[in-house]
Amino acid sequence: MKLQLDFHPEISNEKIQIGNKITLLGSCFSDEIAIRLRNSGFHVVANPFGTIFHPTALANLLLTTDVEASVIKRDDLFFSWLAAGSIYSASKENLVAKLLELQNYLIESISTSNFLFVTFGTAFAYENEKYGSVVANCHKFPMSNFQKVLSSVSEMDQDWNLTLEKIYAINPNINIVFTVSPVRHIKDGIIENNRSKARLIELTNRFSEMTNTIYFPSYEIIIDVLRDYRFYKEDLIHPTNQAVDYIYKQLEYVFMDKQTQEITEQVRKLKANQKHKILYPESIKSVEFESVNNEKIADFLKNNPQVFW
Questions:
Q1: 273, part of any domain
Q2: Alpha helix (H) residue ranges in 132-278
Q3: Is residue 300 in some structural domain?
Q4: What is the pTM (predicted TM-score) of this model?
Q5: What is the distance between the alpha carbons of residues 182 and 49, in angstroms, rounded to a whole number?
Q6: In the structure, what pLDDT confidence band is assigned to residue 1 with cuts at 50, 70 and 90?
């Protein structure tokens, strides 16, 4: 009896090579993938503005020219409708400077990256009338400040057509990979969450039909292949590490050749040994273990200088 459906995503012609730089934007799922890419020896830039879920809020990171207009004050701190709550300052001037620095950092990262992974989390938008757009985060302001709407595919498509134009103007050779987060937004409601995900899937399908972007089916792998709550954490919303590891292995299958996968596996093993907690660090065996592992790392990096350690 089959325990799961046989499904292997289509192998991409565009390959991630050791030494490539990868930028990731989007939901918390993109942060999980970024951790695994870093741990595999790639140069990774992930969510410099923090975790952002809505396509339009992500598009605003590149399309916004007046970052100062996004700044608001809550109590004694300043936040931005452009960014997550992790981006803040005690003064408006400092926050504006930080936002401009982050925007330039993102543009520079895109300009030098081989791949850009974009993970959409939800089509539900929180719009602030004074700001005039979808906010990246509500920053604990009362809900009376926002209008919650389920964005149409055409609205999000329009925003991202402009964004794709800008990305390709910055880096004509970049490979853009879209994916839909498998994290359930149950607070919106089960039916509502599925309608939201359906719009994101349709949105990414439009991109693949009209541009040379790539779609990676992380959502489908969780929902249709793993299909079991044992692959979700206790909240029944977020995938377990085991589930994310499975998706990452599928990502390697799609985007990396055998030689690259072998090198990344060696990187992970060496890093695991390096992080290994030694019970008696002063013992002769422990000192020898650490010395031998450091020699292995040095030899490995000498033979593979393109690995980002």
A1: no
A2: 153-170, 190-210, 218-220, 241-255, 258-275
A3: no
A4: 0.94
A5: 21
A6: low
